[in-house]
Structure formats: structure tokens, C-alpha cells
Amino acid sequence: MRRAALGLFGLLGVLSLVPQASAEGNADYSILTISRERLEVATSCEIGVYLDNQLSARLFQEQSTSFNLPPGQVAVRLRLLPAQMPGCQNGLENQRSQQLTLRAGEINKYRIAVDQNGLKLIRAGLGY
């Protein structure tokens, strides 16, 4: 019984030397959330989210997506994706992308909107 108690105390002592994981402290990534929750884009077509020219997410109305990204610059491009629905076929579109600067430990939220140049991102409040 004594041996078991001493063994348990020894194990607890060793575990106290191991550093604890914490949500606080420096984070080496940034969170980017892109939302299509508002009805600002009046189309039933999927919207493709391209990060550095790679398709990274597909969004329908009332959806959002999040990415854990390293800090620095990221190019985000939005485009309507072809689908089986009428009006969602390939066509000419603006191929511009937006450059976003991400800082470590930050949470960035953007919503998708449309203007005369096509789809774009607008910074949104976190709403927590």
C-alpha cells in the first residue's frame, strides 16, 4: 500500500514537470473566417474561395468557413462555380484577388458581398 502511494506521488511529481498546454500565450497562426450568411449575393450558385490560387472552400447561402493560416500575406479570390443550376455555367469573370494581411493570434472575419467589379470580401465584426 505504501509502495503504491509513493509510486502515485512520484508519478504526479513527474507530471508536474511537463509543460501544460494553454490557450493563452503566443499563437503562431491566424484564423480567417469567410461568411456567406447574409443574403448580399443574390445567386444560388456555389461560391469558390481560393487561397493563393487553390480552391480551398465551396460556400452556398448561409454557410461560412474558417482557416488556420500562418501569419503574413494571403491572396483570396472568390468566384462563382459551375453547377447544374441554371446561370451557374462558366463565363467571363474578374480574376482579381484581395491581399489580406494576417497577424499571429488574430481572428479575422469577412463576409462576401458583390459590387460592380464582382465578388469581394468586406471585414465583419466578430459578433461574440
TrEMBL record:
Keyword Signal recorded = yes
Q: Which residues form the signal peptide?
A: 1-23
Q: Which organism is it from?
A: Pseudomonas wadenswilerensis
Domain of life of the source: Bacteria
Descriptive protein name? Lipoprotein
Keywords assigned by UniProt, alphabetized: Signal
